[in-house]
Specification:
about 100 residues; mainly alpha; about 0% strand; elongated; transmembrane
Length: about 100
């Protein structure tokens, strides 16, 4: 009677091994879920960035106001008769003193 119980116990342990330690185990599934959540968050950030860029492209294609605003802020465009004044964010300090 003892041998069938030992064989049954060995079979039970052999079937439980993949569940706890093999591929697709509980720990493996938990790690994959964590990676999936991180990738989904990164995808959401990239989708938001793509939507912002698409809106900017649409604005640039639709009118000259957006194009002029971008040129003024990024390229320091000055129209004839205007004066450009640049105010630095940080105060200038003397170097070497």
């Amino acid at each position: 009677m003892r041998w069938p119980a030992l064989i049954f116990l060995a079979l039970l342990l052999a079937l439980q091994y993949p569940l706890w330690f093999g591929k697709g185990s509980w720990q493996d599934v938990r790690e994959l879920q964590t990676r999936l959540e991180a990738l989904q968050e990164a995808n959401q950030q990239l989708e938001q960035r793509n939507a912002d860029l698409a809106a900017e492209v649409k604005d640039l294609k639709s009118g000259y106001e957006a194009m002029e605003e971008k040129a003024r802020f990024e390229l320091n465009l000055v129209k004839p008769g205007e004066v450009f004044v640049h105010i630095p964010d940080e105060p200038v300090t003397a170097v070497g003193r």
